[in-house]
Amino acid sequence: MKLILEMGDSQMPTKHDAKEAVRTLLSYLETDYQREGLLDTPDRVIDSWDEIFSGYTMNPEAILSSTFNGEGYDGIVLLKDIEFHSTCEHHLQPFNGKAHIAYIPIDKIVGISKLSRIVECHARRLQNQERITKNIADDLEKYLAPLGCAVIIEAAHGCMRCRGVKQANALMTTSAMRGVFFDKAEARQELFQLINN
Ligand SMILES: [Zn+2]
Predict the structure, then answer these.
(1) DSSP bridge pairs for 176
(2) Which residue among 57, 77, 94, 140 is least crowded, i.e. fewest CB within 10 A of its CB?
(3) What is the 129 CA–ligand 1 centroid distance (Å)?
(4) 85 counts as catalytic
(5) Which regions of the chain carry the CATH code 3.30.1130.10?
(6) Nearest residue to 169 via CA among 187, 183, 157, 178
(7) pLDDT at 136
(8) Distance between CA 117 and CA 86 in Å, rounded?
(9) pTM of the model as a whole
């Protein structure tokens, strides 16, 4: 990963080491792991990680620091149904779903694409859903200093679909409510109405 390379630690495994590690895993599964179909699999797996784990190269401050003057707007700003893909840190299984992000500005507003960027920044890492939810709320609070902010995430987890309890349709919901969304039931109610519209 880029971030690891930037750290310049010579003890860190190289991309080549990572590909060889995947080859070892393939040989754990199949004695015929050198067959044609698997030959380039280690390269493809590790190359795909550049995108799947690109969150490590993104910086929340850089994403949320270019703000605009809100010109007195004091209502809810909501971006809903932000699709995301993440990887469960316990099983290396994908989990994916939708995030809804809202805030009420005091004077800083941010470009709408930045809200989906901040989801990618946290989702494209080894994660659990609770941490993604909390980290996004923390960043909104820190960089936008809003009257309140809210993050709601619904996701289906590969580790539940494919293994263990095999709950194919179970969705997990997490939420973080800050400021006025935490303090005032009316603010939460208005938010839920907007999300469910
Ligand atoms: Zn898992």
Answers:
(1) 151
(2) 57
(3) 10
(4) no
(5) 68-196
(6) 157
(7) 98
(8) 14
(9) 0.90
Q: How far is the CA of 132 from the centre of ligand 1 (A)?
A: 14
For residues 108 and 151, give the distance between their C-alpha atoms in angstroms, rounded to a whole number: 18
- Helix, strand, coil share of the chain (percent; to 5): 50, 25, 25
Both tokens of residue 6?
């930037």
Cα of 55 from ligand 1 centre, angstroms:
19
**Two tokens, residue 35:** 């067959």
Residues whose beta carbons lie less than 5 angstroms from ion ligand 1: 88, 90-91, 159
DSSP string for 107-166: SEEE-HHHHHHHHHHHHSSEE-HHHHHHHHHHHHHHHH--SEEEEEEEEEEHHHHSSTT-
List the pLDDT tens digit at each of the 197 positions of the chain. 555 555 555 689 999 999 999 999 999 999 999 999 999 999 999 999 999 999 999 999 999 998 999 899 999 999 999 999 999 999 999 999 999 999 999 999 999 999 999 999 999 999 999 999 999 999 999 999 999 999 999 999 988 877 777 777 889 999 999 999 999 999 999 999 999 98
- CATH number for the domain whose boundaries are 68-196: 3.30.1130.10
